[in-house]
Structures are given as structure tokens and as C-alpha cells.
């Protein structure tokens, strides 16, 4: 048996903070909760990012729910990526049962059935406020990285953006971008080459195929207006709690490229928009990305580098990012190294590869005399986890086996009627769900090409008419036979006229003289 008094002293020393914090559970030793060994999270270091990992059914989603509730109660806005569709219940009050009551007694906490302020957001046709962004907001560099283009092709994309800026051609959706691509490789090629240099048909063809690939994953729904303003993610409810924005992305599990595109754009927009804040007592926004492996699954090297850069720098903006995934190895090592909070639920060791992952995972945690981490990871119960965080000085706290508190909101999804009611009460749904199709590059270039086609058609008709008229004039007056007949007829007419005038009388008079 381990020394419980020494363990309690260690936990209290490691998890006592000067600033505000909230309790997520109690430390355990030898399978039992240690009274008074509260595990607290300091708000001050929650912008240092984190990881929630564990096998299916071990309680990751409920831990995420508990963290979101604690942040909301502290007036910190939260953004949740709901890839499985099981987080909407935060908007409804929870119902106590025997298991919840028993756990609350062990943790010495009171269960308060609570509904939290929630806004539902969506990237597709699902119910909720629509999230969109324009192609222009992505910019040539980010768009090139998403499409996986090389330097030459990326330079060509930059040229297209410059041409559109110079000629007031708004790039709002992929339809606009595709139209410009087609224009510069065909009708407008000569025009562009005079100002911007040689255009490669091979490059335009490659870029077009990459855009079509993105469209096949449903990107047309995401690109367009009205662009979502990140300030709407950082709102406080009327009762002072942080609003929890839940992005419903249940239909993106088989479209990882679109999910990566959205996440990278959102992170880039947050970084570009939010001012530098330095060290804050509380973060301005905390984002939880469920099923985080979807971000990295098809990400190329350039995309991974971009994500890593943003993760490193965005904490100074007062924003924390938390990845939730089954296997901690799903997150690249370069990103994993930036994560201060680690909540490790149970992992299963069914194969030799699983055991290798568990060993690597255990080595990522602080050493401890109270647990054999490699073995404990496979023995954790549902709702239990290994926890370590950064204290207010940025030093990792001691590793503890923690029993996580139960959520106070519903641990189930909302019904369709409840979702309709929630969306109907939303202050931002009406703002973003209005369909807007402003005049942009597609319409402007289409009109330009149609006008050019009409002008060419009109000029062709005028040439044809002129040619026909000229041909008719030559047929009537220039034919030799006609000219001969005209002269003969003219002579006859002249002679007749002369006879009428009396010249015929002179002939008769002359005849009578003889």
C-alpha cells in the first residue's frame, strides 16, 4: 500500500493555485478516492492547449462536457466540434440517477441539474447557424496549402488573386475561382500574359482538378457569404455565463479534407482577428476538437506546418485548443509537444502494436512513485483518467489517477423538437442563414464573355450583310451582257426621241427635193 498521507500532501501542493480554478474530480490511490485530494484546473493556464484521449466508451466525451460546463460557469465562451452528434445535450438539464449520486458522494460535490447556454452551428444543411467563409478570406497562401499545390502552382494562384484584386472581381465562392481559372486559361489568357507573365495551361488544369476534388467533399456549401464573424464565438449570455457554440459536423466523418479546411481557416481567422493579450487570468475562448484525427488524417506537410505554427502562436491571443481523440498518437508529435493539459482515459491492449502505443503514451507523462503508468492506463474505469496540467508557473503538476465528476447537463442528445426550439431562439441563426448571392467574379466574367460574344456575332452579321449587298450591286450593273443590252436600248430610245423632235421630218423633206 502506498503512503496515502504523503500522496495527499503531494496532490494538495501540486493542485493549489492562487488564481481562479475549478474542480474536475478527486485523485485516486490504489483504486479508491482519496478524501480532500481535489484535482483543480487553473483558468490562467487553459490557453496552453490540451489533449483528451482514450478508447471508445471510456468517458472522453463526458470529460469534454464537464470542462465545457466549468468554463461556461466562469464566463468563458466555448467552441465544441461535435463530430459524433452527442454533445447537444449540454443545452438541457441533466437527470440524476444512482450512479451519479454515488459518484458525487465520493467526490464530495453537489449535483446541480443545469442547462447551459448553447448555440448550434453547422457547415452543411443541418439545423443551426451556417458557418461560411469566402475564397478571398482564405487568401492565396492558405488556399494553395489546402489544395496541396507546389510552389509554381501556388504562385499562379497568387497571380489569380492579384488579377481579381486589380480588376475588382470578388472571389466569394469556388464557382468564382473556377470561372476565373477557366477564363485565364482561355479567353483572357492574352490579356493576363501582357501584365502578369506567362500562363501555363498545365498548371491551370492541375489546380482545377484539385478544386473539383475539394468540391466533391461538399466545399461548395462552406465557401460563400455571409462570412462568419469570429466575435460571435466569444459571447456571454444574459446571465453572465459563456455561450457554448456547438458546431454540428456529424456529416463530415467521411470528408476529412473539408473538415481540415474548415478548422485551418477558423484557426487562421482567430489568429488574424484577435489582438495580442499576453498572460490573462482567463482565456477568451476555449475550443474542443472532437475526433481530432480527422484534421491530420489527410493533411499534407504544408498543412501540418501551418497548424503547428498557429497552435504555437495563438495562445498569446488568449485562446486555448483541446484535441479529443482515441489514440494520442493520432496527434503529430510537433503538436503534442505544445499541449499543457493531458487527460488520458483507458487504452486497450489487444495487439502488440497496441502495447507499443501504450508504452509510448506512458512515457509522455511525468514520472511518479505512486503509479505504474504503463499498467494503469489499461486498468482505468469509465470516467477515470490520468491527469497532469501546467500550474500557474508553467510547470507540469504531479500525475494523478483522477475520478472525473459527472456532467450537470444531459448526457444524451436533444430531440428534433428541442433542436428546432434552440435554433429558433438563436440570436445569430437569422443573421447567417439568409442566402446571399452578391455579384462576384462568376457573374462579372460571364457578362463580359456574353457581351464579347454578342459583339462578335453583331460584327459578323454586319460583314455578311455588307458582302451580300456588294455582290447584288455587281450582278445588276457590271455584267457585260447587261451593259450591251442597256446601250442598245438606249440608242433605240435616243432615235425615237429624235424622231419625235422632228428629225424624221427633215428626212421626208430631203426626199421631196429629189
Task: Explain what you see.
By secondary structure, the protein is an alpha/beta fold. It has two domains: 4-131 and 225-251 and 283-432, 3-Layer(aba) Sandwich (Rossmann fold); 135-221 and 439-450. The chain is 47% helix and 13% strand. It contains 19 helices and twelve strands. It has helices at 4-14, 60-73, 98-107, 135-147, 151-166, 174-184, 189-196, 201-216, 219-222, 256-273, 293-296, 301-314, 333-336, 352-362, 373-376, 416-425, 429-433, 441-477, 480-512, and strands spanning 21-29, 32-42, 50-53, 78-82, 118-122, 129-130, 244-248, 285-290, 319-325, 341-344, 384-388, 400-404. Strands 2-1-12-11-10-3-9-8-4-7-5-6 form a twelve-stranded mixed beta sheet. The protein is elongated, with a radius of gyration of 38 Å. The chain starts with a helix and ends with a helix. Residues 492-514 have low confidence and may be disordered.
Q: What is the fold named in CATH at topology level of the largest domain?
A: Rossmann fold
**Main sheet summary:** 12 strands, mixed
What is the typical, i.e. mean, pLDDT?
84
- Taken from the alpha-carbon principal axes, the silhouette is elongated
Main-sheet strand order equals 2-1-12-11-10-3-9-8-4-7-5-6
- Can you say what the CATH homologous superfamily of the largest domain is? P-loop containing nucleotide triphosphate hydrolases
